[in-house]
Amino acid sequence: MKADLFEAIIGAIAIDSGWDIKRLKNIIIKMLDIERFFRDVDCREKRPNKFKLENAINTLKELAERGECSMPIYQISEKPIIDDNGKQWWHCRCNVNFRNLQWMGLWTKYTEGYGTSKKLAKKMAAYNMLCDHYGLPNEYKN
Questions:
Q1: Percent of the chain scored above 70 by pLDDT?
Q2: N or C: less crowded end of the chain, CB within 10 Å?
Q3: What is the phi/psi pair of residue 55, to 5°?
Q4: Distance of alpha carbon 42 from its chain centroid, rounded?
Q5: Residue 126, SS3?
Q6: Minimal CA–CA distance to 91: which of 117, 65, 56?
Q7: How far is CA 73 from the centre of its chain?
Q8: How far apart are CA 81 and CA 73, in angstroms?
């Protein structure tokens, strides 16, 4: 979709400029100035703050507010799971519909999260959703 938009913009500029090749070349160079695009990005930062565990719930909510996905639905277990060591773990499932532009439909995803509290389980489910959708490595895989 972005490529089609880029092509349409270049086509409109070409027609308006009377197919002036020098002008087209200058505009394309400015549009593709990658260094300008990355100027404000801190490349030393391993993971942007919005994709960290503590911000995962808000990031998913912001994506939904921008129309990139549906509002996440969280299903938290009523009772904790007790492991072999007697520790309690809560389970949360996160369901999100992402827009799939190739098929012009919705793509439903769900992820699960576990935590020592309901709040942490919800954060883990949201974090796992972001990692899965954006192909980010999961720092808390175990």
A1: 80
A2: C
A3: -110, 5
A4: 18
A5: helix
A6: 117
A7: 16
A8: 21
Which amino acid is present at 39?
R
Task: Provide the residue type at 110 as one letter.
Answer: Y
Looking up tokens 């639905």, which residue turns up? 73
Structure tokens at 96: 């999100």
Asked if residues 77 and 95 have their Cβ atoms less than 8 Å apart, the reply is: no
The closest of 68, 132, 66 to 94, measured between CA atoms, is 132
Question: What digits encode the pLDDT tens for the residues 53-111?
Answer: 888 999 999 888 887 788 999 999 999 999 888 899 999 999 998 765 544 556 788 99
> Hey, which residues does 99 pair with through a beta bridge?
106
| Residue 94 and residue 129 in contact, taking contact as beta carbons nearer than 8 Å | yes
User: Residue 46 to residues 42, 49, 55, 89: CA-CA distances in angstroms?
Assistant: 9, 9, 15, 29
